[in-house]
Amino acid sequence: MTSTYSLPQSRVPDPRDAPTLRWAILGPGWIATRFVESLHRNTSQQVVAVGSRTAARAEQFALAHGIERAHGTYDAVFTDDAVDIVYVATPHTEHRAHALAAIAAGKHVLVEKPLAVDAAGAAEIADAAGAAGVFAGEAMWTRFLPKFDVIEQVLSSGVLGPIHTVLADHGEFFTRDHRIYDPTLAGGPLLDLGTYVASFAYSVLGRPDTVYATRRPATEDIDGQISAVLSGPDGHAVLNTTILTDTPTTATVCGRDGTLTIPGPFFMPGSFAVTMRGGGTVEYDEQPGLQVDGLHYAAVDAARTIDAGRRESSIHPLSDAVATLDIIDRIRASISA
Amino acid sequence: MTSTYSLPQSRVPDPRDAPTLRWAILGPGWIATRFVESLHRNTSQQVVAVGSRTAARAEQFALAHGIERAHGTYDAVFTDDAVDIVYVATPHTEHRAHALAAIAAGKHVLVEKPLAVDAAGAAEIADAAGAAGVFAGEAMWTRFLPKFDVIEQVLSSGVLGPIHTVLADHGEFFTRDHRIYDPTLAGGPLLDLGTYVASFAYSVLGRPDTVYATRRPATEDIDGQISAVLSGPDGHAVLNTTILTDTPTTATVCGRDGTLTIPGPFFMPGSFAVTMRGGGTVEYDEQPGLQVDGLHYAAVDAARTIDAGRRESSIHPLSDAVATLDIIDRIRASISA
Description:
The structure is a homodimer of 337-residue chains.
Chain A: E1 22-26, H1 30-42, E2 46-51, H2 55-65, E3 69-71, H3 74-78, E4 85-88, H4 92-104, E5 108-112, H5 119-132, E6 136-139, H6 146-157, E7 163-171, H7 193-205, E8 210-217, E9 223-232, E10 235-242, E11 251-255, E12 258-262, E13 272-276, E14 280-284, H8 296-307, H9 318-336
Parallel strand pairs in A: 1-2, 1-4, 2-3, 4-5, 5-6, 7-10
Antiparallel strand pairs in A: 7-11, 8-9, 9-10, 11-12, 12-13, 13-14
Helix pairs in contact in A: 4-5, 5-9, 7-9
């Protein structure tokens, strides 16, 4: 059955039209590689510098991606006059310190998710950026995808009726040698895969009244799986995240009048569907994409925001990052209760 | 990618070959109609009697389905010598009393799910049937479907590796005039839609160590939605059931080495898929079906069981029904804690 409902258009502008910032990459790892590739392939942003604790790694990354300036210390990045904005892609555990140092040096910052390991750390970054008058943002790239702009419009239009349920999971099997098994790097699923489901739940339902979570260990030091129920005035979020198994990694929003389903992996570019009760299904048709097809949207949003004289994204403000980390804090508290 | 894994065959025998029992229907409502239609269409079982509190309803049902004997009291059903087995399809709140009365009269019983409103009631039925030497079973029809026999074989083969996660939901929007909104009939999702997800979780993971649930009211007297996390030695079950919205009603079992996904509605006849990590997907290909295409499997299993001189189904023994109701009891306890 075809639906009489039709989806709104994405309002995300062409990423190539965004004003150009001069970017420095802090921490040349897996996600930084994808971020630079995504910028180079899809935008006119300039990556002018890279910094690592070891000069050799910085130089190797610079060479691989045609970046002019390779710094063997983070400080050299923060004091580099050629740099407008620092993309912090160091391990989660260092996001806060590196973001604060960049802000103190007067740089704008875009910080890989999670913004910090807890809400207090995230709030510190927000406060410091506010006081320094620089831009700070969390690179929760999912929120900036054209697909999610359409989803946001569907949700805020009220067409689904009162929302009662968010179902979301994000599970991926990792081998023991992966850094996600490293307790010194805040290993386990929660700050990594779990950030996506917590952020999604928050974006739909807002702050929950109650948070209950249970954990399954992977090793003595590391969570393997966390399942949680969030309950708030507007509904339940039923969440699961795991590094022990591949899961469907779908997300669903169920309202009285309709259901929005995002096939896995829900946080990537791709399609979704809205099924109206008794009124058929309409699909947002988008080729599934990987990180390289989507990481740049958060970056060009930063560029536009800064160019407009604003210091925070209107799509994913710092308060959203803080609130998501507050959920994560409460999940941790529930687990250890 | 195609998988090198291939699915086992269903071992469920042709329903028409089962020995014939003479059935009486107790409670001529929605599910009884589908049950009789399913028997008549797919088996050689004989429906010889129907009983209702009102003679007119019994007669109307008998006429509609070509049933010889219409009884205006339940007792007349229990004492009818032409009846081998009573299918108890009265409201949940009466299952226990009607099953016990039928057993006391020496009849075999197949009771609509849930077997009783709590584990104690279910255990009473099991004990009474054991003492009387008659068959008793819960018509958890899903468990008897050819699809679920294949799923059972996949799970018990160990091909998925250690199971860590069960995700299942069952949500359906009901209007206020539906009996599911009637508090005197144990309304709300838990004993109805919720029975399917609890039973599925139990069948995969066994008895949970901890059960946490949260509720969202539909009215002052009725739950609208219940979300739960079950944690046991073998993994987490993340469950949701609601009468407030339509949900995908999918079920997923995630193991270290593979994931089994059952598209919605998972509890009906239809397809499912097994995706092996790094090894492609293999699909069990079955036309989606409705109640009429599946309710008879539990009935013919009862017929075969009784004919073999046994008093309990080996596919869905009474202990499984009691254990599922124990989960439901613990969900209720968690909600009201």
